[in-house]
Design goal:
Number of helices: 10
Shape: globular
Low-confidence stretches: none
CATH superfamily of the largest domain: Medium-chain alcohol dehydrogenases, catalytic domain
Structural class: alpha/beta
CATH architecture of the largest domain: Alpha-Beta Complex
Number of domains: 2
CATH class of the largest domain: Alpha Beta
Helix content: 25-40%
Order of helices and strands: EEEHEEEEEHHEHEHEHEHEEHHEHE
Largest sheet: 7 strands, mixed
Mean pLDDT: 94
Radius of gyration: 20 Å
Strand content: 25-35%
CATH topology of the largest domain: Quinone Oxidoreductase, Chain A, domain 1
């Protein structure tokens, strides 16, 4: 089979399309013929060696959409021919991949493979951030950083579906405003002095909830526009910087910081994802949430896909067509 393999860390030049053997599923795994997969910022960090260490040839990719080609001897929930999305442990930039049945989910017929490949991380994550972690309430005001990306544009839609009064999105450049507003945000702003802009827009009240995947100075400045009893959910570190705040910024204002990792949850609490998937698929089928696909590339164009994300040029998800 064809697969994108890296044998060392580095720039996009380390990405190679190679012929390798089709993997075999173990007892609790399924073999999936991949139709489409996606590129996430975590793939960039993995390629650069910033997230995990690799030993020998490694396939990147966190999510895959395709058809089950074989099931392990102990698999009960799936059968050959089913359309699924999955989170393969050993990469998805390949024509075939294996995934544990607990991290594989049957997709409704109404959802095409492009949407399916683009959806799992951004939509499952957005749902968990807003519903399970932040416990967003009807009528709250929400600030979403990196709002033009896959998670950001999806979280905007979900926040509105869940009853947010106001949603504000931050981006790196004004050219991305249209993407943020099209997703349903009430205001799009750049990071420059964003806290002052947010406070002005909210008449000095600030926001009830902030979703932060940037960290660093963005995390620190977020406290300047977080309302009393407000929450920041920190779920990423695209700036590769550490954000620091004085603990006195928390107790007297009754504000809180919550951390979440979808990657950790997939490894440690996979059983919590199936109920999320069921609810998210309903939102996608009903059209309440539409995952924006910014660009589609073939497996052989994977370097372009990585460079687009690395240079912050993408809006929405980047999909790779494998079949």
């Amino acid at each position: 089979m064809k697969a994108v393999v890296i044998e060392s860390y580095g720039s996009s030049d380390v990405l190679q399309v190679m012929d390798i053997d089709i993997p075999r599923p173990s007892a609790h795994e399924v073999l999936i013929k991949v139709d489409k997969t996606s590129v996430n910022y975590a793939d960039i960090k993995n390629r650069q060696g910033l997230k995990k260490k690799i030993e020998g040839p490694t396939i990147l990719g966190l999510e895959a959409a395709g058809t089950i080609a074989e099931v392990g001897s102990e698999v009960k929930k799936f059968k050959v021919g089913q359309r699924v999305v999955s989170f393969p442990e050993k990469g998805s930039y390949a024509q075939y991949t294996v995934a544990n049945e607990a991290l594989t989910f049957a997709i409704p017929n109404e959802i095409d493979f492009t949407t399916a490949a683009a959806s799992p991380i951004v939509s499952f994550l957005s749902y968990q951030l807003l519903k399970d972690i932040a416990r967003m309430q009807l009528g709250e005001t929400v600030l979403i950083h990196a709002a033009a990306g896959g998670v950001g544009s999806t979280a905007i839609q979900m926040a509105k579906v869940f009853g947010a009064k106001t949603v504000i999105g931050t981006v790196s450049r004004e050219e991305k405003f249209s993407t943020v507003l099209a997703a349903g945000a009430d205001l799009a702003i750049t990071y420059e002095d964003f806290s002052s802009k947010v406070n002005e827009y909210t008449d000095g009240d600030g926001v009830n909830l902030i979703l932060d995947s940037v960290s660093g100075s963005v995390f620190e400045e977020s406290f300047a526009c977080l309302a009393l009893y407000g929450k920041i959910v920190h779920f990423g570190n695209t700036s590769n910087q550490t954000g620091r705040i004085p603990t006195t910024a928390l107790h007297s204002s009754c504000r809180s910081v919550l951390g979440f990792s979808f990657g950790t949850t997939r490894k440690k609490r996979p059983d919590t994802i199936k109920p999320v998937a069921d609810e998210v698929f309903k939102l996608l089928v009903n059209g309440d949430v539409q995952v924006k696909v910014g660009a589609e590339y073939s497996l052989y164009e994977v370097k372009k896909a990585h460079e687009m994300i690395e240079n912050r040029e993408n809006t929405g998800k980047i999909v790779l067509t494998v079949s």
